[in-house]
Each structure stands twice: as structure tokens, then as C-alpha cells.
Amino acid sequence: NPDKxxxxxxxxxLVDGIVTDPELMTLPLDDHAIVRGHAIFDTATLAxxxxxxxxxxxxxxxxxxxxxxxxxxxxxxxxxxxxxMTEIVCRTCVASGCRDGSIRYYLSAGPxxxxxxxxGCEPAFYCVVYGVMRDLATFEAVDEVLVRHVxxxxxxxxxxxxxxxxxxxxxxxxxxxxxxxxxxxxxxxDTIAEGAIVNAAFVTAKREFVTPPFDDILAGTTxxxx
Length: 226
Known about the structure:
This protein is an alpha+beta fold. The protein has helices at 32-35, 54-67, 78-96, 134-137, 155-159, 166-177, 221-225; strands spanning 7-12, 17-19, 39-47, 50-52, 101-108, 124-130, 146-147, 184-186, 192-195, 202-203, 209-210. Belongs to the class-IV pyridoxal-phosphate-dependent aminotransferase family.
């Protein structure tokens, strides 16, 4: 099914290894990414064998980890973890055999129990490499739908790239119900906010590239480069 590209490779810090057999790509049910949604993630693009803008993606991951009070899995310092995560991402890409695709990596409070906090849990890092989703690879022009009835996230949760994307999913579903694809959220003051998984941007009549303010939405790494 082209809408569901297979996961080509997965790394788990719990075993400190990479697997390419889908039946071995597992997470413990007591991982707090599942139990409480206490995890963050980020996604980078693999294009022609190169990882696109991994460093700014990791910058955002570490900011989210700090705000989410997540322990780092590879030592005490950000420098140690950045070096190890960069190595893991690159090795997982090589193991996948893909030259083009997507890379998604998660930092979780980890497994340990079914409690409310992460006390007693082992922080975990996961990385997967998978093919490009067809609906995100083609970018056909569509009349996107403004979504007003799905609430926006509180600013703190909007800026932290938490793996809880229920409101994002509801935004896209509401848009697709009306012939759109990802939807564009509208603030209470009737200004444009962001799409379900993309930033919004505009080119003015003066050929200026402008975006909505990032105070209450996620600051995308690609739109910031533009």
C-alpha cells in the first residue's frame, strides 16, 4: 500500500541495536510514551542519501526535552547526547538501505511502570527510517480548508513537539471531511495559525515572505530557514 510505506529500519536504545525485521520493531507497553504520552519526537528528511538539517531538528528536540522534563539517555550533557543521536540517525539510515525517505526519532520517559510520573523509568531513544508518504510527496495543489472548531493547543504544548498529536489529527480529519488535506487552524481573533503538520506562510504583493508569529505554534525548521 503506497499510503503506508514500510519501516525500513529501527533503532532502540533499550537494546542499543538496529533491526530491519518489522516483527522485531517493538516498544514495551509500559513505556511512558504509551502510558502517559510523556515523549517527544522530531522528523527529518532523507534525500539522496543525505539527512536534511539534522542539527536544527536536534536543537528543537533538546528544547522540547528540557520543557518536557525528559532525562537524556546517553550521558548527562547535551553534547554527549547530540553526538550519539547523530551517529544513531546516520547508522539507521545506512541500515535501512534507503536513499530517500523520512527519519523519525523519539525521546521517551521510557519503560518502567504504569505510574503517573517517570520516576523509576529508563529514558529511551528510538529512531525509525521509512518511505515517503505519498500524500506528502506529491504536493498537488488543493483548496485547503480553514478549521475553526478544533481547539488549538496551549502555547507550551504547541511549542514542545510532543508525540500527542490528537488535535493535529482532528484538524486534518476535519479538513479532509470538506475536501482539504491537512487543514489550517484559525485563532480566536480570526488570524491564521498553522496546518496540522505544516507551517503556514504567505508571499505579499511586495514579494515579502511572512509567517504567523510562533508564540503559540510550532516553529518549523524549514520555514525558519526560508
